[in-house]
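Input structure tokens:
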């Protein structure tokens, strides 16, 4: 069974995680609060189950939806993010948006042991030539 988005976010330190994902939500899939020491941040997130890349227009649209609703934005994708999307995510004068691509998402799932099983496998192969020389 695949882990739910809230499980990963909660394991990563979020509280009050709520999946919204309704029609007309402007691309907001959910909200949560991330506490870091004395500070807490209202965060909105968007999840993209894509094989392709998240581009700059997706980041811009998401930023438009999050303005006035949160302190931070987070886009998680099973795919990748284009160089333009990464630039747009940290553009001067605009609220920063963090991007989590498929590779980082896999690392987080492995780190928190959510929906994955990690096995260390030792492979032994027979070197016939070396054995023949014995």
């Amino acid at each position: 069974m695949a882990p739910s988005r809230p499980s990963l976010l909660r394991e990563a330190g979020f509280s009050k995680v709520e999946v919204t994902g309704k029609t007309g939500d402007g691309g907001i899939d959910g909200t949560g609060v991330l506490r870091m020491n004395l500070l807490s941040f209202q965060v909105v997130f968007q999840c993209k189950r894509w094989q392709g890349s998240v581009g700059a227009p997706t980041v811009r649209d998401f930023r438009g939806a999050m303005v006035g609703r949160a302190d931070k934005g987070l886009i998680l994708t099973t795919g990748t993010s284009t160089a333009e999307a990464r630039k747009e995510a940290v553009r001067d004068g605009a609220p920063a948006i963090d991007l989590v691509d498929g590779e980082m998402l896999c690392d987080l799932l492995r780190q928190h042991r959510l929906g994955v099983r990690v096995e260390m496998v030792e492979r032994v192969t027979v070197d016939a030539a070396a054995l023949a020389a014995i």
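The CA atoms of residues 63 and 95 lie 7 Å apart. The radius of gyration is 20 Å.
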